[in-house]
Design goal:
Largest sheet: 9 strands, mixed
Distance between the termini: 109 Å
Strand content: 15-25%
Number of strands: 14
Helix content: 40-55%
């Protein structure tokens, strides 16, 4: 019909031989080139649903109820549309589509080849390329990502693939399969979500096994949520470190059996660790009766110095309950000394290829250990460095001394936390002020006035009096005239 309509005498066919196989490419009549697939087939360019073309009843034509002017110059397809005549077809635009109208759509496509959607020979290769590219992109960007990200990425790729396919169909009139790329996206997304979930579970177990003996359970959950952002590599960070040691532990343990000593330490360390966990601390290690903890790692803690000092104060207060339990078991009471230091230190997973530990290193850490040991010298339970004191605005401290510890060339001031500022009474504030004045006289070499104040404080103190005795002996045993001109008041400790 199309050949006759355009008055063409013949129909030409075109084919291509590839590897000995003849592949049909299309037909040509007059000046119209119709591209087909290798089987000589075309996709039907449906204009729309049924009755997109004008319908005329054969009866109306025969009875001349349809004017000749309406039919003049047209191409008529004669067929049936009644259900009983069984020429209804299932098509993409209708389940009961008149077969005769299928031919009408094909004819219009032959008359206007530009509207025919083509399925060229290279469509298979293009489809494989799109499938491969989709798979590679989805795989590369899904590894190690969360399920939410994978779903977002899958939806993005799906929209891109569909948009590209629609563009080819509507603008370029090229038909490429869409099912396989979409099926691949669904399968890969499901695979990586499952793999990611398994990896996340493994990651969670790994974090728990790594930190459950060092970090409070609630903090472990935060570590798990932090996911891949968690770094185990060493880094420099401003932190607070705490050392706590039992006083005269050797003499305490001499009268215990190995089992009693183990139970004794277990009860003590459990109580102390719980207090540290309650104040967001991380246990670094236990070395015999010594506990080492730090703040601001692995998770950040803006108030690490405050939390560290509060933990130390709670540990001292908690000894009352611990010692009550020991008394019931006829075990000796515990006294501890605690030292805290704040500053930059290296933190991370450190060690050898055989064993590693999450720990801290640095000069600030060494200073904390030295400060803890000085609690025995000054007869106080807690000592902190100046930087720690400065970071605790809600706690009142008593100046203890200016010292130069072993391994340090510069002096540092030591302070004892007395309590929360809003809970101290006027007498406590008065003694702290008087103690500071006495220290000021001492550093200004006004030793007679300093000696008088230290002597008065030693007899009336509300706190530990041993530190005043230290300064009284220092004044009495030192020749003021023999002091060096650059003397800065610091006492040099020669023992660790």
């Amino acid at each position: 019909m199309a050949r006759l309509y355009v008055l063409a005498n013949k129909i030409e066919t075109r084919s291509n031989i590839l590897d000995g196989i003849t592949l049909f490419e299309g037909i040509k009549f007059q000046d119209k080139w119709i591209q087909t697939d290798e089987h000589g087939q075309i996709l039907i360019p449906y204009k729309g649903r049924a009755h997109s073309f004008p319908y005329y009843s054969a009866t109306d034509v025969l009875m001349q109820r349809v004017g000749s002017d309406e039919l003049e110059g047209t191409v008529a397809f004669i067929g049936t549309s009644a259900v009983g005549l069984a020429d209804l077809r299932s098509t993409p635009v209708g389940m009961q589509y008149p077969g005769v109208e299928v031919h009408a759509n094909i004819f219009e496509g032959l008359m206007h080849p530009e509207i025919l959607p083509a399925k060229p020979n290279w469509s298979l290769g293009a489809s494989l390329f799109i499938i491969a590219l989709t798979g590679v992109v989805l795989s590369l960007f899904s590894l190690g990502r969360s399920a939410r990200f994978i779903i977002f990425l899958s939806l993005t790729i799906t929209v891109a693939v569909i948009s590209f396919n629609v563009y080819l169909w509507s603008v370029q009139k090229i038909s490429l399969p869409l099912l396989m790329p979409l099926l691949l996206i669904i399968l890969l997304a499901g695979y990586y979500i499952i793999v990611g979930s398994i990896a996340e579970m493994h990651h969670s177990r790994k974090i728990k096994s790594m930190f459950n003996q060092y970090v409070p359970p609630a903090r472990i959950e935060q570590l798990i949520k932090q996911g891949n952002e968690l770094s185990q590599s060493s880094e420099k960070r401003n932190m607070t470190v705490l050392f706590a040691d039992i006083r005269s532990f050797t003499s305490l343990s001499e009268n215990m059996t190995a089992h009693q000593l183990s139970e004794y330490l277990n009860q003590y360390l459990t109580s102390i660790t719980q207090i540290i966990f309650d104040h967001n601390g991380t246990i670094d290690k236990y070395v015999g009766d010594m506990v080492m903890a730090f703040w601001n790692a692995p998770l950040k803690d803006e108030n690490h110095a405050q939390n560290g000092v509060e933990a130390a104060m709670a540990m001292i207060n908690g000894l009352t309950l611990i010692n009550k339990l020991f008394a019931e078991q006829k075990l000796p009471a515990v006294k501890i000394g605690i030292g805290l230091s704040t500053g930059d230190m290296n933190v991370g997973d450190m060690g050898s290829v055989y064993r590693k530990a999450y720990t801290v290193l640095g000069d600030t850490v060494n200073l904390g250990a030295r400060i803890e040991n000085l609690t025995k010298f000054y007869g106080v339970a807690i000592l902190v460095a100046e930087e720690t004191m400065n970071a605790c605005p809600h706690i009142t401290f008593r100046l203890i001394d200016k010292v130069q510890v072993v391994g340090k060339t510069t002096a540092t001031q030591l302070f004892e936390p007395i309590g929360f500022t809003n809970k101290l009474d006027t007498k406590q504030f008065a003694e702290i002020k008087k103690s500071f004045i006495a220290m000021t006289h001492f550093y200004n070499k006004d030793w007679p006035q300093a000696l008088s104040l230290f002597t008065e404080l030693q007899s009336t103190t509300l706190f530990s009096s041993h530190v005043y005795g230290v300064f009284i002996k220092r004044i009495q045993n030192t020749d003021l005239q023999a002091l060096a001109k650059d003397w800065n008041g610091a006492f040099i400790h020669t023992k660790k």
